[in-house]
Amino acid sequence: MVSYLDKTEKHILQDYATISNQILKDKKVEENDKKSIIKTMDELNSGEESKLHKSLKDALHAHEKKTEFYIKSNGDVYMRKDT
Prior knowledge:
Elements: H1 2-25, H2 31-44, H3 51-60, E1 69-71, E2 77-79
Antiparallel strand pairs: 1-2
């Protein structure tokens, strides 16, 4: 699942780069719009993991984490949270 997500993100980046380059070459596009496109491309190319990717990866690997539960005498259940 994670490798599929990686491949999908790469395709999205490639397509966005292609479209962005075409827009940036267009003389009718305003300078502020061009700056916005460049900023977005820089953010996408920064190599940081996307929030969606991180969230999915964390969910898929949650079962691998050690979890401790505590049951009080009144029946309340608490989960130990590591910080």
